[in-house]
Amino acid sequence: MQLEQALAEAHGEPGADLAQQLSGVVLTERLNSATLARLSALLSREKARQALMILAHSAAFLNPPAAEIPADTPRDELQRARC
Fold first, then answer.
1. Fewer beta carbons under 10 A from the terminal one: N or C of the chain?
2. Three-state secondary structure call for residue 60
3. Helix axes 15-23, 46-58, angle to 10 degrees
4. For the residues 24-38, what does the mean pLDDT come to?
5. In the predicted model, what is the mean pLDDT of the chain?
6. Structure pTM?
């Protein structure tokens, strides 16, 4: 995940600077709770954590990561059974 790599590289950077950088980031998929907690733990400054939370909230209505989408939903299985 590019965001995780960027946060790890910015470790120790002043919170305001990192918060400013995060304000320019655009996510392409939703952040789940576990990922958000893991990324938040990388940040030592409150401003940076707040900026990450805002970023996560702005992505709340995006699709989840592809790995979190089940390959076959129960409805798909029912439709196949009818054919």
1. C
2. coil
3. 10
4. 90
5. 83
6. 0.73
pLDDT band at 61 (very low <50, low <70, confident <90, very high): very high
Contacts 24+ apart (CB under 8 A), 7-15: 7/39, 7/42, 7/43, 7/52, 8/42, 11/42, 11/44, 12/44, 13/48, 14/45, 15/43, 15/44, 15/45, 15/46, 15/47, 15/48
Lowest mean pLDDT, pick from 7-21, 38-52, 65-79: 65-79
Calculate mean pLDDT across residues 49-61: 93
- Lookup: tokens for 45: 């400054």
Nearest to 7 by CA among 45, 59, 63: 45
Half-sphere exposure of 24 (CA within 13 A, CB side): 5
- Domain parsing of the chain, residue ranges: 2-82
Report how far apart, in Å, the C-alpha atoms of 41 and of each of 9, 37, 51 are: 14, 6, 13
